[in-house]
Amino acid sequence: MRQTSLAIAFASVPRRRPATAPRATRTEGDGQRIRIRLAVASAQVFALRQTLHRAIGELARVYVVEVDHRHEETTLHVEVERGGRDAAMHAIMAALPAAEFGVTTLLGSDHAAH
Q1: Could you report how far apart the first and last alpha carbons of the chain are, in Å?
Q2: Cα 84 to chain center, whole Å?
Q3: R_g of the chain, CA atoms, integer Å
Q4: 3-class DSSP state of 27
Q5: Least confident span in 26-40, 42-56, 79-93
Q6: Higher-scoring residue by pLDDT: 32, 61
Q7: Superkingdom, according to UniProt (predicted)?
Q8: CA 1, CA 7: separation in Å to the nearest integer?
Q9: Model confidence at 110, in pLDDT bands (50, 70, 90)?
């Protein structure tokens, strides 16, 4: 009996498909939202929010602010439409050049605005 390569034998096995129905794919202009996390070395929340609002006021829906007074750092969570991500990030970099971008999270359809 001839031996076959395990890799070749595995590659020829059909993969199982999930039992759930296929989800519709979304495009970037369909209203899907993302959350962008920003860290700024400042505890001046009012000035940061004002600057951010001037920069991306029409693009953003929600600003959530967490202030760490001990380390003089503010974390901002900004929700924007996925299709407006590039414009929002460009405006943020122009308005707050010292801001550090963190995780960008795709928000599900079950996410509700605050």
Answers
A1: 67
A2: 12
A3: 22
A4: coil
A5: 26-40
A6: 32
A7: Bacteria
A8: 18
A9: low
Diameter of the chain by CA atoms? 77
Closest-CA residue to 76 (of 111, 103, 114, 107): 103
> How is residue 41 written in tokens?
């070395």
How far apart CA 10 and CA 5 sit, in angstroms, is: 9
Per-residue pLDDT, 113? 54
Strand pairing partners for 60?
80
Q: What's the token pair of residue 111?
A: 């996410």
Q: In what order do the strands lie in the sheet with 100-106?
A: 60-68, 73-81, 33-40, 100-106
Which tens digits make up the pLDDT trace of 56-90? 888 887 677 889 999 999 999 999 999 999 999 99
Q: What is the DSSP letter of 1?
A: -
